[in-house]
Amino acid sequence: MQNLIDPAILFFAFGLLAGAVRSNLEIPPQIARFLSLYLLMALGLKGGFALAASGLTSEVATSLACAVALAFIVPACGYLLLRRYLPGFDAAAIAATYGSVSAVSFITAIQYLETNGVAYGGHMAAAMALMESPAIVMAVLFANALRQRATPMVTVGGGAAALGGPGESFSLRKVLHESFTDGAQLLLLGAMLVGLITGEAGKHAMQPFSGDLFKGMLAFFLLDMGLLAARKLRELKDVPRGLMLYALAGPLCHASLALLLARVVGLGAGDTTLLMVLAGSASYIAVPAVLRYAIPEARPSLYLGMSLGLTFPFNLLLGIPLYAGVAQRLAGS
């Protein structure tokens, strides 16, 4: 309940309300882009400063290994399940969306932990970066396999040759390049490196930027996300009810898997919470942007409507405090 009276969360709820009543309130796209870049830069700096203080320990390596494992397990399991009920391309796209992560959900979870005095490792920002791309790569491979099965073959000079199909102009190299060199991800990692190099002196110098402004910037950005989520809610008429259930139950299952993994390796409450948030979130910016090019056969109304219209509001309003409460109960504060 405490999460619901946080100013940033209340601005998100206000954005939902303003969007629901079709208000003309809007944040210019350039401002929204700046806010997202600011939040990633501030998050990276915070992570780098924390890493400079703690050092690269075995716990850091264990946390990152858990994040990478989840980045492969979640989309693989999602695809195997969804493939039984959906066309292959839609299944691959949704699996990629839910196998990747939401930076805004992660940043909100960081703010929640700081507000409640729960310690966490700055290296979890690196875990977020590591978890973004594997799901995209796996979805591309799934889609290519589907295309190869669907492409008819003709005999040419005694050998088989594929006729031009939907993947004819598709460039796996381009998709992989975009996945691993995404500007937002590079900014996050670059800011972490700056924080790691400058340490305590850098933290003191950047405190007005990465500390004092952070809460207000997050509230402003969540207002815009509320307006955007309200628009996507209106598009859910195209999403079958079974997929609406997956959009809510899937994150809980993924977060539970992260909790189990964190308990096995003995992560603390803060890192466990963040790992659960990462596993239980779904991308609605980076992955959909790549999927529109990589898997044009998939329906954006499904994977984007689910992630932004249902999963993102659920995690922001209910999921984060739920994950944190369970993690603190089982892992200790």
From TrEMBL:
Q: Does the keyword Cell inner membrane apply?
A: no
Transmembrane stretches, start-end: 6-25, 37-56, 62-82, 89-113, 125-146, 243-262, 274-295, 302-324
Q: Which UniProt keywords apply?
A: Membrane, Transmembrane, Transmembrane helix
Keyword Metal-binding present in the record's keywords: the answer is no
Tell me which InterPro entries the record gives: Sbt_1
Report what the protein is called: Sodium-dependent bicarbonate transport family permease
Mind giving the lineage of the organism this protein is from?
Answer: Bacteria, Pseudomonadati, Pseudomonadota, Betaproteobacteria, Rhodocyclales
